[in-house]
Amino acid sequence: MLDIKAASKSHLTIPIERLHFHRWLQFACTDGIAEHPVFPLILQNLAIHLYSRKTYLAAKVCYGEKYLRNPVSQPLFEQLRTRILPQTEHRSAKNVALFYKAFAQWLSNPSICSSSFRSYDDYLLDHLLQFIVANDFHIWIEYVDLEQLRAQLVTGQKVYISACHLGSITPPASAASTENLTQLISKFSKQNKAQPSPLTPLHPNLPREIALDLSDACDSRRCLSLFASQLKEINEGARFVCCFLIDMIFQLRVVSVLL
């Protein structure tokens, strides 16, 4: 709706690919996305753009039928309705399978988009359609496989722990409050259960690694002293550039006066 308003005010034609519904449709048709536990929420967002009623010039309108019949979007709608949804329905739990079956039924009946539509009882899970028409967009969390989602999160945590050589993700027991920020950082450093990274041989011509810990971040004098030579080179370079620019500006002013 916002894209349509923008197009009407700017007198510019916005391609169908930039409309919100088409982006959600493309997302729903992405390879492998139907296997993700939040796939029902992707379909919910698509349904909101297809079946919600908008107020335009004091009248209730729905653009869903135009979206469904658009020649650019039709192949994706057909792919979603005839291939993706039936396959996902076949391998899903009973209640989620019913949701996918209902969504395919909705896509097969553009009459649902009519502002005068009232035959909700003829369709599966009609209460979800009525929620959208009533502008109730609460998340349909009952169709999300939360156990699968938790399992994916745990797997991701294990990969992170393994990659970072962490001993455990269990937070350490709380200790007594520290007096200042330096002591707080030092406490975290002592409680760190991370295993050291594997040692790699260093070439003798390379500079040695500077040993720093978290507490050094609070000591600006120590940090600056470690990189004093590099900072000195940067300052000298900056001073040279400034002198060069000043000289160039002076020469340009002289030339402009002579001309």
Distance between the termini: 60 Å
User: What's the pLDDT, averaged over the residues?
Assistant: 83
Shape: flat
Structural class: mainly alpha
Spans of at least 5 consecutive residues whose pLDDT stays below 50 are: none
In terms of quaternary structure, the protein is single chain
Number of helical runs?
11
Helical content band: 55-70%
The largest sheet, given as strand count, sense and whether it forms a barrel, is: 2 strands, antiparallel
Strand content: under 5%
Which H/E pattern describes the elements?
A: HHHEEHHHHHHHH
Strand order of the largest sheet: 1-2
Q: Count of DSSP E strands? A: 2
Report the radius of gyration as a whole number of Å: 31 Å
Would you mind describing this structure in some detail?
With 259 residues, this protein is an all-alpha fold. It has a domain at 2-144. It is 56% helix and 2% strand. It is built from 11 helices and 2 strands; from the N terminus they run αααββαααααααα. It has helices spanning 2-10, 20-28, 39-51, 64-69, 74-90, 94-107, 126-133, 146-164, 181-191, 220-226, 228-258, and strands spanning 54-56, 59-61. The protein has a two-stranded antiparallel ribbon. α2 runs antiparallel to α3. It is flat and about 80 Å long. It starts with a helix and ends with a helix. The mean pLDDT is 83. Residues 5-145 form the Epg5-like TPR domain. InterPro entries: Autophagy-related_EPG5, TPR_Epg5.
